[in-house]
Write a structure and sequence with these properties.
alpha/beta, single chain, 9 helices, Spore Coat Polysaccharide Biosynthesis Protein SpsA, Chain A
Length: 261
């Protein structure tokens, strides 16, 4: 399977780290020069604007992933794995990414990453690769640090993003949006990669941060909106304790915490 690694020209230290990591796993990748949001003009951002404008970094990130989808088509690939350059990757990635024979025929996207959170999936696995299982993903599971796109998935994604108004991870992995809702998406359990800024253990996390962190901090609620969010948080969490088991009991889907190994 071909692997694409998205990396900014001004982040050579990340490229060196990922090169070393993949070499240890016996894997090779093709670097895709990331679009730099700091160099995007207002006209370029407007060119891709949908119903609302994204920030420069979000637009650049989307365009970087879009370039990978385009290459899948142009190079006649049956599928490819797409990675960002701030990942921790499990040892099982070597066998997992050696080929894509295990990818379900109907798949558009396979998410092999976790945000270390809960996601809703089909109870019955649709396949397996080694000791990992594949389940249809039925809920939002943000993050686009590591995923596989099939050729037909790339075709769908490209058709839907002549213009866009949501960050790329939501575009693909938030079923509340028409784009994600139209895709057949599978989740790998356990996941084989996780972005560094998600890792909670201080002895593991490297402090790489996210290139979009500054922009997203600006979007966080403040004042009364923040206060209301904090007031309702325990009630939402309590409701989840009851609703998730009930949902699993009466349907063919379940909530799982997506781990990383």
């Amino acid at each position: 399977m071909k692997l694409f690694l998205i990396n900014l020209d001004r982040q050579p230290e990340r490229l060196r780290r990922m090169t070393s990591l993949f070499e240890e796993l016996g894997l090779s990748f093709t670097r895709v020069a990331a679009v730099d949001g700091a160099r995007l003009s207002g006209a370029e951002i407007e060119r891709w604007r949908g119903a609302r404008a994204l920030r420069a970094g979000e637009t650049a990130c989307f365009l970087s992933h879009r370039e990978c989808w385009r290459r899948i088509i142009d190079e006649g690939l049956s599928q490819a794995a797409i990675f960002e350059d701030d990942l921790h990757v499990g040892a099982g990635a070597s066998a997992l990414l050696a080929d894509g024979d295990w990818v379900p025929e109907d798949a558009d996207v396979v998410k092999i990453e976790t945000k270390l959170q809960r996601a809703r999936v089909d109870k019955a696995p649709a396949g397996a690769v080694g000791d990992r299982r594949l389940h249809r993903l039925r809920s939002r599971h943000a993050g686009a640090g590591g995923y596989i796109v099939t050729r037909k998935g790339a075709e769908k994604l490209l058709r839907m993003c002549a213009r866009f108004d949501s960050p790329v991870d939501q575009f693909i992995f938030d079923p509340a949006l028409p784009s994600a809702a139209s895709l057949v998406i599978y989740q790998l359990l356990p996941a084989v990669c996780v972005q560094d800024f998600v890792v909670r253990e201080p002895e593991v996390a490297l402090g790489l941060g996210s290139d979009l962190h500054g922009e997203r901090v600006e979007d966080k609620p403040r004042g009364t909106a923040k206060a209301w969010r904090e007031v309702k948080r325990p009630f939402v969490q309590l409701g989840g304790l009851f609703w998730r088991p009930l949902s699993a009991a009466v349907s063919d889907r379940k909530w799982v915490f997506v781990t990383f190994t």
